[in-house]
């Protein structure tokens, strides 16, 4: 009887030890998926006709300088998650939020192409700015979205150069037929157009008129930013030295070409000049 009882106890103890050991070695795996990343932008670069990161040089007669901004957009949900990009190019410090010819332009649909790796895309945005673009530092701001999460943006700055330029839309200052010893009661005029990004001033100089017979002294011509007669233009007498008309000031155009007129009068000599008389008047731009 004693031997049987001892064997039973040992068997029961072995079963208990075996069962406890099986639960002690269970190892479940942990798992978490991290997503929902907003896109980020880096390496914004501004290009123009002079190359990458060069300042934007405006040129006389230029209908528009093409400026390109590109950047690398990264989205750790995958590059395919990037759904759109837009950009603005504006004069730093200006308060305009809408496109205009002087200080703000935009690209609402930038081009998205494949970048390096699984998470990156290249965004390219294009702008055209005309000669009316104000000089100073301009900022390119690129914004990217992924359709689900927040947008991200980044900027780069470039300078737009000063452009002082204009055009005279008339080739002749025509006084018409006049009798000897008279002055022009109705002034002739030329139309001047601002083709730059600065407020335009003008200087004037000329030479003596050469006639079929004889000549007319250049000092017999007067000019003014305001219409009038010969007597009222006494403050601006044309001569061989370039002289500024302080009354003439032409604003920068803002989408529509801005023009203004300069007026001229002449006194014909009572003798010594016969027939057609011609000279050259030189008009120059000044700030």
Polypeptide structure, described:
The structure is a single chain. With 287 residues, the protein is mainly beta. The protein has 2 domains: 40-160, Sandwich (Immunoglobulin-like), CATH 2.60.40; 166-286, Immunoglobulin-like. The chain has 1 helix and 18 strands. The chain has one helix at 2-24, and strands at 40-48, 51-52, 65-74, 84-91, 104-107, 111-114, 120-129, 136-145, 152-160, 166-168, 188-194, 201-206, 209-216, 221-224, 243-244, 259-266, 273-278, 281-286. The strands form 5 sheets. A 5-stranded antiparallel β-sheet has the order 2-1-3-7-6, with no helix packed on it. A 4-stranded antiparallel β-sheet has the order 5-4-8-9, with no helix packed on it. Strand 8 and strand 9 form a beta hairpin. It is rod-shaped and about 130 Å long. The relative contact order is 0.15.
Give a short summary of the structure:
The protein has 287 residues and is mainly beta. The protein has one helix at 2-24; strands at 40-48, 51-52, 65-74, 84-91, 104-107, 111-114, 120-129, 136-145, 152-160, 166-168, 188-194, 201-206, 209-216, 221-224, 243-244, 259-266, 273-278, 281-286.
């Amino acid at each position: 009887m004693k031997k049987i009882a001892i064997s039973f106890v040992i068997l029961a103890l072995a079963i208990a030890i075996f069962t406890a050991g099986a639960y002690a070695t269970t190892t479940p795996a942990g798992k978490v998926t991290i997503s929902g990343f907003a896109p980020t932008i880096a390496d914004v670069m501004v290009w123009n006709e002079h190359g990458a990161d060069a300042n934007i040089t405006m040129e006389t007669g230029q209908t528009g300088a093409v400026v390109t901004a590109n950047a690398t957009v990264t989205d750790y949900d995958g590059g395919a998650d990037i759904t759109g990009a837009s950009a603005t190019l504006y004069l730093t410090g200006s308060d305009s939020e809408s496109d205009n010819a002087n200080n703000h332009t935009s690209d609402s649909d930038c081009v998205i192409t494949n970048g390096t790796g699984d998470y990156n895309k290249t965004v390219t945005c294009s702008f055209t700015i005309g000669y009316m673009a104000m000089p100073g530092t301009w900022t390119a701001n690129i914004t990217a979205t992924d359709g689900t999460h927040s947008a991200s943006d980044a900027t780069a700055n470039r300078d737009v150069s000063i452009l002082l330029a204009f055009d005279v839309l008339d080739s002749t200052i025509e006084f018409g037929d006049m009798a000897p010893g008279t002055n022009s009661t109705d002034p002739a005029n030329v139309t001047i157009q601002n083709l730059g990004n600065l407020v335009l001033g003008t200087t004037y100089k000329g030479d003596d008129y050469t006639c079929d017979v004889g000549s007319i002294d250049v000092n017999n011509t007067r000019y003014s930013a305001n219409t009038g007669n010969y007597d009222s233009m006494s403050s601006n007498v044309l001569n061989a030295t370039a002289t500024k008309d302080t009354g003439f000031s032409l604003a920068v155009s803002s989408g529509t070409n801005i023009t203004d007129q300069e007026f001229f009068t002449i006194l014909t000599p009572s003798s010594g000049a016969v027939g057609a008389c011609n000279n050259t008047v030189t008009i120059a731009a000044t700030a």
